[in-house]
Design goal:
The complex is a heterodimer of chains A (about 300) and B (about 190). Chain A has 14 helices and two strands. Chain A has about 300 residues and is mainly alpha-helical. The chains are: A mainly alpha (about 300), B mainly alpha (about 190).
């Protein structure tokens, strides 16, 4: 082997990435070649310096800033993409499987039948004799004229008739609660959602149904109205703490843009901690981040208080 | 009980946000350090960091468990770094609407945001090596950082950078030769 070949091996010898036979030859060569021995020392020094530089600590503030920004971005991503892309992915992954072809054929057939049904279906017709039979309570929406020309003395249109419901009963009636839970998640009016929380909470604070608890958790995390989110947090505050509630509070603490709600969350976390729910290492690291970086003084102060106990 | 990377991935794919965060926190320091060393600039490093983890978030459901998660992650990070175009004339924005929360901004001296040297524990050799790294080609630099800063084997670097081992050896050889010349007398 030529001298220059040994020289080229130096760096890989130090990486411990030479094959055995080459390593033996290299070590033999070093014993007799002063130039290569000096070069080896020089590489060792360089690598030791580089290694020292690689160990230099990354600034924790930079890391914390990057993490906070990432959270914001991820939140935006979750809002932006979920259904369409996921649906596409599911369909694509399914179609690549062997039974995908058979499935797609069946699916197309079913879609065709369904479309045919929709196209041939005509809305129920009400003759003018029956118009007076329409219940006064019906809410009429989406009127579409088929024939709006009154010159021949008649017109024709379609409409949706929604029958309003009315329920009166005890507040612990499961049917009533089920409607309120639905309203809590789907009603557009935040005042209604707020009222729903208050009513449900008045009944369930002693022993909350799992489904209702999950609804409150979901509302505390994702409702668009801060007042509703806060009320949901308060409702969760009234039941015995558990891991799930702790995780929800941490989620809210990290992600909610309203400082008032973050304060609510951190206060509840203090309570959770007093009830004996332990924080994991990861939880503490997130709380520590809030202690250093939250924009609100009180949140930082309370985060510090929690950390003091650990 | 600590969950493995693969368990966290499964949980994250089932919508567990905390599992995804835990997974990120296992490796994000390394990714940020790699990005910082690669670009030599704190803002660019953060941009790369965000891009890497957004890609991971979007594609985690496609991860097939054929390699280590860390290898896959560094493959993403390496691609993002190499294709990264620095945003020149970047302006630091400070929110004026934070009311009582504005104290947060004042806690970070503006100078420290502008000078990357302050963002890692400063040392003279670190400055010199940062400058010297700036003269390497993207592939040479990435190979060098993965080898010397992250401690990967050549075979693993080849896997991360989707190259042959021989190619990585060439990158490393050239990178070290150039750095050695430029850092002569500093070590």
């Amino acid at each position: 082997m030529e001298h220059f070949e040994y020289k080229e091996m130096i760096q890989f010898y130090l990486y411990d990435e030479l094959e055995n036979d080459k390593m033996i030859l290299f070590e033999e060569h070093i014993k007799i070649c002063n130039e290569c021995a000096i070069e080896l020392e020089s590489y060792k020094n360089l690598f030791a310096k580089v290694s020292g530089d690689s160990q230099s600590a990354l600034d924790t503030k930079l890391l914390a800033e990057a993490r906070l920004e990432l959270r914001g971005l991820l939140k935006a991503q979750k809002i932006k993409i979920p259904f369409t892309i996921k649906f596409k992915e599911i369909i694509n992954s399914f179609l690549y499987k062997p039974y995908g072809l058979a499935f797609s054929g069946t699916a197309i057939l079913l879609i065709g039948v369904f479309m045919g049904y929709l196209l041939s279906k005509t809305p129920s017709t009400i003759n003018e004799q029956n118009v007076s039979n329409i219940n006064d309570q019906l809410k009429i929406q989406n009127i579409n004229f088929i024939d709006s020309d009154p010159s021949d003395g008649s017109v024709e249109f379609t409409f949706d008739a929604i029958n309003p419901g009315h329920i009166k009963g005890k507040i612990d009636n499961p049917e009533l609660q089920s409607i309120l839970t639905y309203a809590l998640l789907n009603e557009q009016n935040p005042g209604t959602r707020l009222n729903s929380i208050n009513v449900i909470n008045a009944v369930n604070s002693s022993g909350m149904d799992e489904e209702i608890k999950q609804t409150f958790i979901s509302v505390a995390k994702y409702d668009q109205n801060p007042g509703v989110r806060r009320e949901a947090l308060n409702a969760l505050n009234e039941i015995p703490a558990d891991e799930e509630i702790k995780n929800t509070l941490i989620y809210v603490l990290l992600n909610d843009t309203s400082s008032g709600i973050r304060i609510e969350a951190i206060n509840n976390l203090v309570r959770v901690s007093k009830q004996g729910i332990r924080f994991t290492k990861n939880d503490l690291s997130m709380i520590r981040e809030k202690m250093n970086l939250d924009k609100n003084n009180y949140v930082r102060f309370q985060a510090k208080n929690i950390l003091k106990e650990y | 009980m600590t969950l493995s990377d693969n368990e966290l991935i499964i949980n994250a794919n089932n919508g567990d946000v905390l599992a995804f965060e835990e997974l990120i926190y296992r490796y994000d320091k390394m990714v940020l350090r790699l990005a910082f060393k690669y670009t030599g600039n704190a803002d660019d490093a953060k941009d790369i960091y965000q891009e890497v983890f957004i890609r991971v978030f979007k594609n985690l459901s496609r991860f097939q468990f054929k390699s280590e998660f860390s290898t896959w992650l560094f493959r993403v990070a390496s691609n993002v770094c190499i294709s990264f175009k620095r945003k020149y004339n970047k302006v630091n924005h400070i929110s004026l609407n934070d009311d009582d929360e504005s104290s947060f901004v004042t806690e970070i001296p503006e100078d420290s945001k502008l000078l990357p040297d302050n963002l890692v524990v400063n040392n003279e050799f670190g400055d010199k090596i940062s400058k010297a790294l700036g003269t390497l080609s993207p592939n040479q630099k990435m190979s060098f950082l993965l080898k010397h800063y992250e401690g990967y084997k050549i075979r693993e670097i080849a896997d991360i950078m989707d190259c042959k081992e021989g190619t990585i050896k060439k990158y490393l050889f050239e990178a070290v030769r150039k750095l050695k010349t430029q850092l002569e007398g500093s070590y």
